[in-house]
Predict the 3D structure of the following.
Amino acid sequence: MESNDEDQIRLNSARATASIGRGRLAIGLFQGVVAWLLLRLVSPPYYVASAIREMHGPYWSSQHPMMFAALALVTAYVPLIAIAEMGRMRRRTLAIYLALASAVVAGLAAYDIWRDPTQYWGVDSSVRVWPSFTVALCTTLGLFIVNQLLEHRERGDALFTQYADHFEDSWMRGFQLVVSFIFALLVWGLLELGAELFHLIHLDWFRTMVEHNWFRCPALAMAFAAAIHITDVRPTLLMGVRSVGLTLLSWLLPIVVALGAGFLVALLFVGVKPLWATGHAASILLWACAITVMLLNAAYKDGDPSNLPPAALRWTGRMAGPIVLALALLASYAIRLRVFQHGWTPERVFSAAVALMALVYGAGYTYASVRRETWLTALERVNVAASLIILGLLALLLSPVADPARLSVNSQLRRLAGAEISPSKVDYQFLRFDSGRFGTQALARLAEAPDEEVRSRAARMQQTKTRTFRPQGEPDPAVTEPAFSHATIYPTNTQLPEDFRNSDFSKPGQYGLGCLQNGTPCDIYVLPYGAPGELAIIVRVDNENLGSRSVRFSMPGQLFQHDREGHWVNTGSFSDMRCASIVDALREGKVTRVRPDYDDLLVNGIRLHFYRSARSEDGCSKELGAAAADGQDKTRDADAPPQMGPAFGKP
């Protein structure tokens, strides 16, 4: 009788498992179908020709961007929660959880679009319909923490008890998600392989099917759901992977602790000046903190006293807390210095939040390392408390309360109002392109400010359609100054033609020629070119003009000539303009027109242009250097006939 009861229990369990599996696959199928329908409502990517996109007319997503973003984010996360928690939570609890998660996720996505409704691609701008990567990343982290805390509560455990269950849930769930994602990618890889196999025998129907979203989205979603189910009902499949992974990670702890300790000791002798000079010290220090925290938790595992790690790991584990605290303090001070120098930016706001968490972990782990009890037992309470603090920070950063863009815009305006910075040092480009609604509104207010310089720069930036790229957080005053204001005209004492100065260069295709639209420094050469008596203009910009600290580069010199209607147009470019000797000669007007070395070919009415092989990387070949040294022009006379290409020999 007892055996029959056991068989019935196993049968019921198998039926329940099968039912949960079918439910997960059904949810995966539903998620994939909804994703496919949503993709039908969004316009093709920006790199698709605008004419093709405009043939369809306005897409629903562009007309209702906040609603589309909310649906997209809910579709990405809520079915995943249902798949993961089916069979783990009571139905009523799961239903309430899914409803609240849907409302929160939709609200975050809608607010993200509201605060920054426009996206910029070069000179093109369009309505933004997809949630930002920052919102997606923060939502992933927040839902992961909430999910694990709710599972813990669902078992009837108090928040700060049964740390072994906390550890088991979080690390197993993390490995499960990674393995399931890899499984979905492998399924997709096999489908691509099948498409290639059928293509070998000229059957392309399978590839056509695989390339369509109506097949792709449900297939990937169901593959992910199947992987979640398999790893959930057979946890031993993951336990071995997790055990090996944690063991390997734990033995990286002595290395990172030794590196951190060595860095701090070296800092005592070298000083912090080289550290601050990098301009990105805080980010590297915070990464070091995050990696050390992860490796320490891998070594601690569930904290079972009967399964303590070797002595080497225990000693380095006690040193990890103070090292994290020291690195976090250095990172916090670095952020503080940058904020005092240049004000807040969204990146610095997020860095400050990460630094705060690093301080929490560092202080907590230091406290755990000095207590006379079982190895680092206090780490358990620190981890649980830190997870709650992370949730609080995410709620603040993703809401208007501590929106990084709003805080950064207010910082710019406050520094300007307090005369901490001059009008030229305000980052108008950040207000125009990188701070969404808050920056646009602030720029409009500055365009009506009583100060004439502020008003002029803000009004000019409002009309700007393209951005320049500078080191993060550093304003570019040139973009709010008049066109040609920092352009140098060569040869000396040459006048720039008035019709060129008054031409409109704001049209697409003028990337890299900011000095024709604003105050970006550049060299402009007015030289004889074309028909006798005609002038042409070469515009040259390099990163020495732009004040960049990166590796030096130089864009080709852009050639401008009159078209048939008398308008100045960009007709081509000249390369090899990085050599100092060439630049000096151009500035003195020492140029001679020459015919091409080789003919083009006319094939069936189409002109095929001949291009000489590239010269050396620095653009200053030995041949050019020798010509500059002895004054010998190795090119042929301007009136001599051109040669045929090398493949045909010379006449």
Observations:
- Residues 545-552, 614-619, 623-651 have pLDDT under 50 and may be disordered.
- The first strand starts at residue 118 and ends at 121.
- Strands lie at 118-121, 124-127, 487-490, 522-528, 535-540, 557-562, 568-574, 601-603, 606-608.
